[in-house]
Amino acid sequence: MLCAPGNRLVHNPGMLQRFIGAVVGALAFVFLFIFASFVLALVVAAGLLIGGWLWWRTRHLRRTARQQKGSIIEGEFRDETAPQRIERRTDHPANE
Known about the structure:
By secondary structure, the protein is mainly α. It has helices at 15-57, 59-67; strands spanning 2-4, 8-10. Strands 1-2 form a two-stranded antiparallel sheet.
């Protein structure tokens, strides 16, 4: 034991303690890696299940969209009505 500033005792770990610490650290790292892999697998499986369920539930929408494909007309339109001036609008407070 060494005496550090402030009269605290500092213990230098021995070789056995260092070895046990390294083994425990390596085991913790391996355990956390396995745990993270398990969680990732669960997330992927849940995503596949939810995606498959949504795909199955919306199959009738895709079928009807395929059947109505010829009835859609695409194009542009323009509103050509003349805008009213504020003084002539019926909903303006000054005209009440």
